[in-house]
Amino acid sequence: MPREVVQEGLPAGSERRLVLRLLKYWRGLQDGDWFPPFSAIDNVEIADMWNDSFVLDLAGHENDPVFRWFGNGIACRCGGSLIGRHVSEVPENCLASVVVTYLDDVLAREAPMSRGGELVLWNGVRILYRSILMPLSDDGKTITGILGGANCREVTEE
Amino acid sequence: MKAFEIYTFRGGNWKIDSVFDDKDLALFEAKRMDSSNRFLSVRVVEEIFDEVSSQTSTRTIFRGGSGAELSYQAPKKAAPAINKARPRAAGAERSPKGRRRKPAKKKSGFSGPFLILLLVVVFGFAAMFGLQFFAGVKLG
């Protein structure tokens, strides 16, 4: 099981794992069974997770969503930011490339999904990652966006 | 391929909450949700998809709560059985564009009174024609 990067500066006893903290934040934005809207996301409120997060826009781009936000923590594992770029333009063998592989499953199940695994990046670095995708909606029912998060740690050969 | 689905019991139905590919993570989150007392009941279902046979098998590996969902009574109608509909397995085709949730079916109370009104009108016309006919026969 991939281990999460230890988050420094968190209060004692709080959840360390990024995906669970982000999921908890997403649940807090929900109104009953309704998906949270884009406008509810407050990057100041999740400042400790914002750099490991990204936002996909599906409205008008159902077949090829667009990144509206792409944190630096993920960008450094992708060779650069993907803000304004489509999912189809994600480079191979980068952290974002594995995260978007289960986007269709999230849209089909209409529920948050988390996946992890191992990946060898384009630059030869081997990482263990954990990611999560969570639906967003402008009307509460139709999925028009995704709030995602991912972090990783390098696997060093001994 | 394995998936661990967290379900919560809400409004008389089991509804999917989240899906993990890691069992320990799913169980941790389910137990945390269960202890929050926010949900009547929480369960984790392990879903195994056999890529060779394309068949999916499921089993419940965690059931939280006090079993209160078993005695749940919906406000107006009888409590439905636990929803046995399974979400599509990983790799299934995307749902149609729009990905709208199915709207709740509404029962219309309009057809009953309308039928009664129609019957009254039909019988009324029949009575009118009948009276005219018999009146004509009598006088003639």
Summary?
Chain A has 158 residues and is α+β, with helices and mostly antiparallel strands. Chain A has helices spanning 18-29, 47-50, 72-75, 95-99, 103-109, and strands at 53-57, 66-70, 113-120, 126-137, 143-154.
Secondary-structure map:
The complex is a heterodimer of chains A (158) and B (140).
Chain A: H1 18-29, H2 47-50, E1 53-57, E2 66-70, H3 72-75, H4 95-99, H5 103-109, E3 113-120, E4 126-137, E5 143-154
Antiparallel strand pairs in A: 1-2, 1-5, 3-4, 4-5
Chain B: E1 2-10, E2 13-20, H1 23-35, E3 42-50, E4 55-63, H2 111-139
Antiparallel strand pairs in B: 1-2, 1-3, 3-4
Adjacency order of strands in the biggest sheet of chain B:
2-1-3-4
Unreliable parts of chain A: 1-8
The CATH homology group name of chain A: PAS domain
Task: Summarize the amount of helix of chain A as a percent range.
Answer: 10-25%
Q: Rounded to an integer, what's the Rg of chain A over CA atoms?
A: 15 Å
Order of helices and strands of chain A: HHEEHHHEEE
In total, how many beta strands of chain B? Answer: 4
Distance linking N and C termini of chain B = 90 Å
Continuous helix count of chain B: 2
Output the structural class of chain A.
alpha+beta
- Give start-end ranges of low-pLDDT stretches of chain B: 84-104
Strand content of chain B: 25-35%
The CATH architecture of chain A can be given as: 2-Layer Sandwich
Globular, elongated, flat, extended or rod-shaped: what is the shape of chain A? globular
Overall average residue pLDDT of chain A: 89
Q: CATH class of chain A, anyone?
A: Alpha Beta
> Main β-sheet of chain A, in a few words?
5 strands, antiparallel
DSSP strand count of chain A: 5
Q: What is the subunit arrangement here? A: heterodimer
**Tally of separate domains of chain A:** 1
